[in-house]
Amino acid sequence: MNHLFDYQKVGADFLCDHPAAFLADEQGLGKTLQVIAACDKLGLTKVVVVCPAIAKINWRREFEKWGTVEREIKVFSYDKIVQSKDVRNEIAKFEPDVLVLDEAHYLKNRTAKRTKYLYGQFCRGDGLVRFADRVWLLSGTPIPNNVSDFWTHLKAIWQYPLNFTDYTLYFCKTWNGQFGLQVLGNKAERMSEFKTVLKSIMLRRKSEVVLKDLPPIWWQDTPIEVDNWSDTKHIEDPREQEAVNAILANSLANQDLSSEIERIAPHIASLRRLTGVAKSRPIATQIAGELQDDAYDKIVIFAYHTDAIQNLYDTLKDFNPVVVAGGMPTAERQASIDTFQSDPKCRVFIGQITACSTAITLTAANQVAFVEMDWVPATNAQAAKRCHRIGQTKPVIVRTFGLVNSVDEIVAKTLAKKARMISEALD
What we know:
By secondary structure, this protein is α/β, with parallel strands linked by helices. About 45% of the residues lie in helices and about 15% in strands. A hairpin with a 2-residue loop joins strand 6 and strand 7 (about 180-185).
């Protein structure tokens, strides 16, 4: 364990001491290394890792590089768990010494198939987790939206007594909307009790505390205007157009939009796509000028919609961009990441947020630009920290580009509210 930082040694010891544990260190603090060190210390020889597809290669590389105990390692994606009964049977027959669930927030949805297969039909711990002697959960964002997201883990791994509804009503402010029970926020008077529960099962460290030599990360909101924005506001369906106009009016009036957003969520989705496309070329043109002037060496750009990503690529093609998006084969994704990290001619990385928010390292750049944001603040934070992690030597600058007088204002308000709830529960 000599290659570990002191805090990583503490994390490895925590895992050794807890057969069921949640390692929730912030992104970039080396959770993978802590798992490997714990496996070595305990002499575990049968290891199963379940992770996002993009992380499979990295897990194998890290075990090969740092592991000191001869062992059998099986690495599967969450998609494979859902798709293949043979894989599920293989894990059950293997009876691993430890089952590692990387990016465990993938299991927050109690009705998702991957959650049912791993945690059991009602998160009773009678899924694949029951075949492992140890279960270690990993995520830098254990609560992506609000404390209700943590119930599946508590129920399955630690046999928490309350069902989902009772748990949510106890810890959260709620209301019954069109889509069922909706969480409005945390009950402040219950957060101390919630943190006490977490303390017994979870270890979480923040980068600014344990890595004092890690350069700072700065976030900048960058409002922009687009000359042809009026054209992109047009939606063929007049009902959608009416709804969109109402959203924009309310946004500018700074009203509470929770009920309005619920009523016309599909219309917002349409407008978000149009907004992203409208912004993409002007932002890319600005970035191209910065690269041409050598304002920085490399940049990581995040977007969501395919059309916006294509615009970014076309405008920045002179800088040898690579793209990582959903649906790409794992090997192709990793090749793009490796190219960006090692090739000085490749100055631009364009990533689809949901495909690039976890399990990759992009420390070749210290500049990050969000053309579009995800609704979940944790996803955006995770994406940005692909650059802000061990190995980064420069301050990381993160710019979020918001189109004025647009749905971006709604997104910003929603993200700010969710971020406050997460901070109340974890900090």
